[in-house]
Amino acid sequence: MSEAGIVVNLVFMFLNLLPILRSTAAASSPACCRAAPAWQYAKLEPWGLPLLLLLLVTNVLNFVLEPLVGASDALIRRSCFDDVRNTGALRHAPDRQPAPGHYTAC
Question: Which residue from 43, 65, 87, 89 lies 20 to 30 Å from 57 (Cα-Cα)?
Fold first, then answer.
């Protein structure tokens, strides 16, 4: 169950990094431009959601996000979840045992 939550959060993270209007990345994009290009970019804001839906329907969004999410998911699985499957316990420092009742990640 936690693996599905990690994948969902990875998708949201990379989706927020795309400079599609009305997103977190788009809010900081005009600060990197001069006044005229920033103003023209800001005029496109009402088209943010239709653009996102168009990217989703044409499968371009999957083409962009799949390699990023796949690589990040593989890295997280290799670093945290391999030990859970092999030993039944999460990875922790060998000299330090987790306190009883405490959950330690990686």
Answer: 43
* Residue 105 covered by a domain: no
- Asked if the structure places residue 58 within a domain, the reply is yes
pLDDT tens digits along 71-81: 998 888 888 76
**Tokens found for residue 105:** 């990640």
Q: Which residue has the tokens 């499957």?
A: 85
Our count of domains for the chain comes to 1
First to last CA, the chain: 17
Between CA 35 and CA 6 the distance in angstroms is: 39
pTM: 0.59
